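Hi everyone,

Forwarding the result from last night's run.
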Amino acid sequence: MTRSRKRKLARVQAKSAGRIFFKATPVASALLACMPAAYSQERTAENAGIEEIVVTAQKRAENLQDVPVSIQALGTAKLEELHITNFDDYAKFLPSVSFLGDATGGPGFEHVYMRGVSSSVLENHSGSLPTVGVYLDEQPVTTIDGVLDIHIYDIARIEVLAGPQGTLYGASSEAGTIRIITNKPDTTAFAAGYELGANTVDHGGIGGSIEGFLNVPLSPIAAIRLVAWDEHKAGFIDVVPKSYTFPTSGITFSDAPFVKKDANYVDTRGGRMALKLDLNDNWTMTPSVMGQVTTTGPGPFAYNPAAGDLDTWQFFSDETRDSWMQSTLTIEGKISDFDIVYSGGYLARNQHESEDYTDYSLFYDRHSGEGAYFRDNAGHLINPAQHILGRDHYTKISNELRVTSPKEYRFRFTAGVFLQRQLHNILQDYVVNNGDPLGYLPPNDLSVQDWPGSLWVTDEQRVDRDAAVFGEANFDFTDHLTGTAGIRHYTFDNTLYGFYGFGAGFPYGPGEGVLTCFAGSTAFRGAPCVDLDGKSEGSGNSPKLNLSYKFDPDHLMYVTWSKGFRPGGVNRNGGGILPPYLPDYLTNYEVGWKTTWFDHRLRFNGAVFDEEWKNFQFSFLGPNAITIIQNAGQARIKGIETDLEWAATQGLTLSGGFSLLDSKLTEAYCPGGPSVCLAPGQENYAPSGTQLPTTPKFKGDVTARYTFAVGGGYQGNLQASVVYNGPRWADLRIIARDDLGEMPSYTLADFTAGIEKNGLSAELYINNAFDSRAVLSRYAECDIEKCGQISVYNLPETPRLIGIRFGQKF
């Protein structure tokens, strides 16, 4: 058959497959019917199609379009074009992803959700494991108190796998997985590059960055890659003057020492070193180490609308320091035709933070006159305002060994074993020391024993262990029809041990602290005794079934049934009053499509899904603002998500996507039973039909990029991006919604103009060009029914940012 006849036959087959696909997928039909027929022409050098994307979502390298999983991938070029440097930047362009910051609001403390699988924003050190797993290359880096905010530079791609990924990725991938894939050392060629940037923020200060990488072949079998970055992000939240008078003592407390402009700056420094060593023709070893230190200024990242636009009041420092190091070893090779991969990682993370807790202190003094108990050793009333000094130390050790059969086989499989141990040492010190320290000697011994000035101390050790064996097999029934079946058998063993609570002399603390210490217990680290020793363990299976049909090389449809899980854990409560909370499960029914059209000029992927979330873990504040986790009722999430890229004309590319969700309770949430929840003023209640929090019903983005030739051999580019995020709620419970209000929708627009030649590039860009005051998160300093009466805070998108950057690659 001649080449022209082959091309003609391929076009006929594509049209036939397209007719079938249009009938099966009305959304695709409606969209593509609008595309001009001119783009069904052959690709030429002057009329190239979109770039092929290779992903490793199924533990093997495959074309994105051949993987029957809902995946959005941002490659190196896209990451650079969108000026993505951190988690907030890339989450903005992922329709299936939403997130919330906690009370500190700084980088590294965000909690991430996918497909609307979210029930609560009370995520803390003794709370539930995340529902979304985060991986750096082959190693999991998910931590409980927030996603690891890895600086994005010299990154090959970010893969976002929506829906349960429990078969291959296990616990904490209940709703999805985010994978950050670094560029690896290359033994074939020297390469280097750097970028310099400077920017200014409206209502704020001046920022800048310097980044660079170096790839050096050491020999025909070895290479090293070095990467480093140093970035300063300007602050834009101002601390303005304010005074509070505590009613019991009449003491007036001013924030004058902390009044400051642009108080929420961020400094990030880090680096990565990787070595590639080809042991022989079949085996390669890649050790690497990556570390980063992030420090934030003395101010919070949220503003208080009562204080003014981008203004807040602050009576203590809100500084944070987040440092981490990840060491990894990956060994890849072959035994016969089978690929063998061992991946081991060790993550150590340390967080030091201070947090203003004045709102909580003011509420309790106004509400119950608690300030009468805050006296110094001479018996004089003192300022009862509290602040928190926290230290968190994490270690995560993970090991995975797997074998993968050749992808050319009709029957293919991936199978392996996985072990992981996460340790979290927790220290939180609630301090009252405002010139006159809290009494710690009789008869005014309110301080925790041996902790002068500390009203409350949390000193705990949390250990989460899980192990699994997993396998996923594919079988080609025909040249077009493939079936996939997978299962993961897992066990988990989670413990929480240590001390939390008040000192013996505090009158409101008989249920927590020194008075509830176990008989015969001795000091635990710096704490006076042990009043917490809990354990949760279990096992189960996470299955998956998938059937995919490939009409031709460019059109694929699939159906999936899969199940994700999240392990149970320990409730922090004195004397074991509350039992451990149980695992929760997400069952996913999905129909998806992967298609390319018009001779690879348009890629249109998407999925329609229906998910059932049973016995989901819900966190709320109990007595003395202690987080309690209970298995609530059930929820259902129905939705559609899409991803599109279109080479519309020579030089003009359009890309984007959207998610449309209907996520709501299918039975009432009521931890105390119907008789309790129907009582007037019940805080922990949400009726059936309540929309799940944090995620909008609609989120979408579109980017247009135009490249063109400029005189002298230069290449110019113009780019515009628009992101829309619909309204959403910050809490599940009805009373909390009434107090916090609905977070409004927002639209963000970014623009870029650049020029490049022979590896040199320069760009001018504007982010949030219309200075939208987008609310990313909303919260009170403690439980909304308490602190919400004092202040509610909005975590905003960075105001208008104008920047330039210059780069060079060799």
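The domain at 35-809 is CATH 2.40.170.20 (Maltoporin; Chain A).

Cheers,
N.
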